[in-house]
Amino acid sequence: SAVIAEREVGFQELHQLEPPYIVGNGRGDEPVHTWPRRNAVGGEIAKIGDVLQGGPGAPGVITGRARIVLDPMDAPDMDPTDILVAPTTDPSWAPLFLSVGGVVVNVGAVGSHAAIVSRELGVPCAVSVIQATTRIPEGALITVDGSTGTVTIVG
Which tens digits make up the pLDDT trace of 42-62? Predict the structure, then answer.
């Protein structure tokens, strides 16, 4: 029907927008028409010396090359010195955790998939590093401190 088609169009339009990091109870929230398009979200590219602050996910410190992965099916070959930088993770990402030395995610908390799996495997993890996948350059040398949730661009 026309109503279903109209709702499908509306759904697809909303899917192209990036909601605010925290959506509250409706009071003080940013109106939908002000949300940026997903492909326009990025923030400033981090430079050497910049520290991105997130939250602690799994303890430990590692320095390695950032590997930006947006879809686990498109992941490149990685080695134990690489650091997985992803939007978020779910069980389909689990095999990648076995081949990296650290994890950084845009969204997550101490009870999130990325944090739990990282703790189980003893891999340092920083969660809630907002826009990590767009701010951290692919291949950048970064240090992840999973106890403090910091990601430092070192090279």
Answer: 568 999 999 999 999 999 999
Identify the DSSP state of 147.
T
pLDDT of residue 37: 73
With contact defined as beta carbons under 8 Å apart, do 105 and 89 qualify?
Answer: yes
Global pTM reads 0.78
The residues, any chain, with a CB within 8 Å of residue 81's CB and separated by 6 or more, are 64, 65, 101
In this structure, what token pair is assigned to residue 1? Answer: 């029907």
Numbered ranges of CATH 3.50.30.10 in the chain = 51-153
The pLDDT score that the predictor gives to residue 5 is 92
Active site residue 33: no
Q: Does 3.50.30.10 match the CATH number of domain 51-153?
A: yes
- Whether the CB-CB separation of 61 and 152 falls below 8 Å is answered with no
Mean pLDDT of 109-120: 96
β-pairing verdict for 141-145 and 150-153: antiparallel
Q: How far apart are the C-alpha atoms of 31 and 40, rounded to whole Å?
A: 17
Residue 69 CA, distance from chain mean position: 9
Spot the catalytic one: 113, 123, 127, 135: 113
